[in-house]
Amino acid sequence: MSMAFSFRPHNFEANKVSWKQDYELNGRRCWVQPRRDGIDHEIFRHRTKWKLWSLSLTTTRPAPIRKYDERTKLEEGFVVPDSNAFGNNFRDYNKETERNKAVEEFYRTNHINQTYEFVKEKKEKFGKLNRAEMSIWECCELLNEFVDESDPDIDEPQIEHLLQSAEAIRRDYPNQDWLHLTALIHDLGKILLHPKFGGEPQWCVVGDTFPVGCAFDPSIVHYKHFKDNPDWNHPVYSTKLGVYTENCGLDKVAMSWGHDEYMYLVMKENKTTLPPAALFIIRFHSFYPMHKNGAYTYLLNDEDKEMIKWVHLFNKYDLYSKSKVRVDVEKVKPYYLSLIEKYFPAKLKW
């Protein structure tokens, strides 16, 4: 079960019975109530120290979590913000903005060209990992030259987003260093955009991912453009299961080609010692039709269903940490270099 927590003073009248004393914040008694609404589990952390006592389950929905000051977001525990860097709702692809017009054109090209055969060709080409040898941090610095054209939420260079995600998750899960590093590297596959890697067009590097070789799900962003994809009328690829069997497992499914799949291949072939959950997050963090909309569940096996919880946890920090608040790169760099040394070889094949 997925739960989120919100805090209210102990005299919150609407919940006298269902709420239980759970925290002491700076000398004040507060109450906590888990909310069964599909949001990833999180404890809202007060700026001062807090003490956990007990937990009670209830189905009563509390009032909305309080708003927060953008300036304090990087100082307090992570809270989901109300709007993106442009002042709009996150992942709002329907709002009439110049940014969204460019995003739709991106997805039109993506959906027309991401075919089952195209994906096989790209995996064969880039799976050889013969483009470069460099460290993880060197890749971070190269990637800083690019802005993701598919993202309606931010237009900052990539290293800003990587560090914002990593620092947000580091504050909330200080003892899970593998999660901190996973957040830092999750978008490094976008290095495919660099001229050294052939300067791949953005439509086959970034954006939401989806299975190929089976029917496209209507929940995919800008789904209508798939009608011009050659696989749309294919006798096999257009069927629900396509080339797959029910509950075959995502390890047997070909995903649309992009930075997720490429970075997954880089990690696996360079024998990272990060746990399997990290590789699952890297490969499927852009698979929004599955982890946001619940599509393609008929392809998942039991292991996938267990692993999804890590994508849900991570996604909040990937999506909602995007802001104009800058991270001091030189200040945090030594910490992340130590994690890179712990989980990766000094030089990787790319």
- Taken from the alpha-carbon principal axes, the silhouette is globular
Helix count? 10
List segments where confidence is low: pLDDT < 50 over at least 5 consecutive residues.
1-91
Q: How would a crystallographer describe the biggest sheet?
A: 4 strands, antiparallel
Query: What structural class do you assign from the helix and strand content?
Result: alpha+beta
What is the residue-mean pLDDT, rounded to a whole number? 77
- Number of strand elements: 6
Order of helices and strands: EEEEHHEHHHHHHHHE
Compute the separation of the termini in Å. Answer: 38 Å
Fraction in helix: 25-40%
Strand order of the largest sheet: 1-3-2-4
Task: Give the radius of gyration.
Answer: 21 Å
Brief description of this entry?
The protein has 350 residues and is α+β, with helices and mostly antiparallel strands. It is built from ten helices and six strands.
Structure, explained:
With 350 residues, the protein is an alpha+beta fold. Helix content is 33%, strand content 8%. It has 10 helices and 6 strands. The protein has helices spanning 98-113, 116-126, 136-143, 158-172, 177-185, 259-269, 276-284, 288-291, 302-320, 329-343, and strands at 4-9, 20-25, 28-35, 50-52, 133-134, 348-349. Strands 1-3-2-4 form a 4-stranded antiparallel beta sheet, with no helix packed on it. Strands 5-6 form a two-stranded antiparallel ribbon. A hairpin with a 2-residue loop joins strand 2 and strand 3. Helix 4 (158-172) runs antiparallel to helix 5 (177-185). The longest helix is centred in the C-terminal third of the chain and has 19 residues, at 302-320. It starts with a strand and ends with a strand. The model is unreliable at 1-91 (pLDDT under 50).
